[in-house]
């Protein structure tokens, strides 16, 4: 046994070394610092321990979940009277729900009889891996995933999606779900939901389908941009800088169509600034939940009365209320205006990094067409060995008299690597170089210097099919300033120089 006091202070020690997500030099991933009201949402829920399985065990706290869904419906353009939602265990859980509803539409009675036929899930190769959890855990099988390549802007290739959907329908297989991603995890790529929606409508008519393939929008990152749905981009009343305004508008153009999806995943613990876990699954038509509901006689100890009984159709039995309370807290705390200011600000800072990289002699932004708070980039050594075996130097590197050596810009190197099979070897070498630059910065960070960035081993494939590695800065904290980006560039150049020195000591 131990005293409460000693246990409490011992617990605190487990937080030693944890990055502070609110610190401006922490740009690791889509992990926000949580607001005080949202932390209180979680604290209240633990202090009083309501259970959102039904209103008998949660009383007015149920209302928080209902209110949350109504607000989010309005935000994304669903009819609050026809739609509904539930909080659940993470963005992964939202994908489980979306895919599960789709399966039941494609294979009615699957809930009772099991999945005994081929059903396919369609999403882009840049979509989140949680689709694999869903397929595996739900017995569909991960082999039934149809991965569609992406365009330069990291959005799903609609022409290829159409081909694959047709092939599936032609052989009499069914479509479990089409799962566009609005805000991919690495690059903030946005699938063109409107075009996917019209494609689905066209195929339903053409093939005279007896079911409507479900579209679930994985918008766990991008949903927050819906706060711009009624922002006046031409008047720009919040005076966003020009570059920021363009960036916000480019995202909004796609996000404004979220309501076309049959269901949507929303993570408040990502771009909503709430603690883990705070996810919301929304359905456009609340009757969809009937497809996966159990009958009350299976649960004789519950649901004999009351008005709000989500436990009849949720995956969970007991349900904590922290997600609902903390998400609702932030919606009330920020309102649309607050979220606009937050998103506008983090995008402004991310844009400033992009500008610095563009102006640097050695860096390239590789998710150029994606206008969120995440910047994927690569850096290049002063000298690269070209496919013909000859060295080429960056334009800005000083030469010697006999130096009639070829000159390249980082953008040229990047373009060639990603677009030409001849450059595959160079791509791999530069992957290793960037990996080394990252490791140097990461070690410095662990020893208290530099800043916390992250790395993606494969943000997309080159035309030749080689994974492209990239360094990643994800700006989430509102406490970030331009100075952080000055420091980032400084650390980056130091690490690049060290990596080059190591290379030359190996070759000499
Ligand atoms: C983070 C993420 C998920 C998974 O959400 P969790 O909350 O981590 O379970 C799903 N899809 C996308 C696009 C994501 O970025």
Number of strands: 14
Number of discrete helical segments: 13
Major sheet, described briefly? 4 strands, mixed
CA radius of gyration: 25 Å
Distance between the termini: 63 Å
Report the portion of residues in β strands. 5-15%
Instruction: Note the overall shape.
Output: globular
String of helices and strands:
HHHEHHEHEHEHEHEEHEEEEEHHEEH
Mean pLDDT: 95
Q: Runs with pLDDT <50, length 5+?
A: none
The small molecules bound here are: pyridoxal-5'-phosphate
Helix content: 40-55%
Structural class: alpha/beta
Q: Give the neighbour order of strands across the main sheet.
A: 1-7-6-5
Cofactor: pyridoxal 5'-phosphate
InterPro entries: PyrdxlP-dep_de-COase, PyrdxlP-dep_Trfase, PyrdxlP-dep_Trfase_major
Protein name: Aspartate aminotransferase family protein
GO molecular function: transaminase activity
Please tell me about this protein's structure.
- The structure is a single chain.
- The protein is of the alpha/beta class and 508 residues long.
- Helix content is 41%, strand content 13%.
- The chain is built from 13 helices and 14 strands.
- It has helices at residues 4-13, 36-48, 60-76, 90-106, 110-113, 130-137, 158-170, 193-207, 242-255, 322-359, 410-419, 424-446, 482-507, and strands at residues 84-88, 119-124, 145-148, 174-178, 216-218, 263-267, 279-283, 363-365, 374-379, 383-385, 391-394, 406-408, 454-461, 467-474.
- The strands form four sheets. It has a four-stranded mixed β-sheet with strand order 1-7-6-5, with helices on both faces. The protein has a four-stranded antiparallel β-sheet with strand order 8-9-14-13, with helices on both faces. The protein has a three-stranded parallel β-sheet with strand order 3-2-4, sandwiched between helices.
- The longest helix has 38 residues, at 322-359.
- The radius of gyration is 25 Å and the shape is globular.
- The model has no long low-confidence stretch (mean pLDDT 95).
- GO terms for molecular function: transaminase activity.
- Pfam families: Pyridoxal_deC (PF00282).
- InterPro entries: PyrdxlP-dep_de-COase (IPR002129), PyrdxlP-dep_Trfase (IPR015424), PyrdxlP-dep_Trfase_major (IPR015421).
């Amino acid at each position: 046994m131990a005293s409460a006091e000693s246990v409490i202070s011992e617990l605190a020690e487990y937080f030693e070394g944890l990055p502070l997500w609110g610190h401006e030099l922490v740009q690791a991933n889509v992990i926000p610092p949580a607001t005080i009201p949202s932390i209180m949402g979680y604290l209240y829920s633990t202090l009083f321990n309501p259970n959102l399985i039904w209103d008998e065990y949660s009383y007015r706290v149920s209302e928080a979940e209902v209110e949350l869904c109504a607000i989010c419906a309005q935000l994304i353009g669903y009819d609050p009277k026809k739609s509904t939602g539930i909080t659940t265990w993470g963005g992964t859980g939202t994908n489980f729900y979306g895919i599960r509803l789709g399966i039941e539409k494609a294979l009615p009675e699957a809930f009772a009889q099991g999945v005994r036929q081929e059903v396919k899930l369609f999403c882009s190769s840049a979509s989140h891996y949680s689709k694999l959890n869903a397929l595996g855990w739900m017995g569909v099988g991960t082999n039934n995933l149809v991965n569609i390549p992406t365009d330069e802007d990291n959005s799903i290739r609609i022409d290829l999606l159409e081909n694959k959907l047709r092939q599936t329908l032609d052989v009499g297989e069914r479509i479990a779900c089409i799962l566009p991603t609005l805000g991919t995890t690495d690059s903030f790529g946005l699938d063109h939901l409107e075009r996917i929606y019209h494609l689905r409508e066209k195929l339903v008519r053409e093939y005279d389908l007896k079911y409507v393939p479900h579209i679930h929008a994985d918008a766990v990152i991008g949903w927050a941009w819906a706060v711009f749905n009624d922002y006046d981009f031409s008047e720009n009343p919040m005076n966003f800088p020009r570059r920021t305004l363009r960036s916000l508008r480019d995202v909004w153009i796609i996000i404004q169509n979220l309501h076309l999806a049959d269901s949507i995943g929303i993570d408040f613990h990502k771009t909503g600034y709430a603690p883990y876990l705070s996810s919301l699954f929304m359905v456009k038509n609340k009757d969809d939940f009937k497809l996966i509901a159990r009958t009350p006689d299976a649960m004789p100890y519950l649901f004999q009365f009351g008005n709000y009984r989500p436990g009849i159709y949720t995956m969970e039995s007991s349900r904590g209320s922290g997600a609902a309370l903390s998400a609702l807290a932030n919606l009330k705390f920020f309102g649309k205006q607050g979220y606009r200011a937050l998103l506008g600000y983090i995008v402004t800072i991310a844009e400033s990094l992009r500008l610095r990289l563009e102006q640097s002699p050695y860096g390239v932004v590789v998710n150029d067409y994606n206008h969120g708070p995440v910047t994927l980039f690569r850096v290049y050594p002063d000298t690269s060995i070209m496919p013909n075996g000859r060295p080429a130097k960056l334009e800005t590197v000083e030469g010697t008299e006999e130096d009639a050596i070829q000159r390249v810009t980082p953008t040229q190197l990047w373009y060639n690597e990603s677009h030409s099979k001849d450059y595959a070897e160079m791509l791999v070498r530069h992957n290793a170089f960037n990996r080394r630059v990252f490791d140097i910065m990461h070690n410095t960070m662990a020893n208290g210097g530099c800043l916390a960035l992250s790395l993606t081993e494969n943000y997309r494939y080159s035309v030749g099919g080689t994974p492209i590695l990239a360094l990643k800065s994800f700006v989430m904290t509102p406490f970030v300033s331009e100075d952080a980006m000055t420091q980032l560039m400084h650390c980056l150049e130091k690490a690049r120089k060290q990596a080059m020195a190591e290379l030359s000591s190996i070759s000499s």
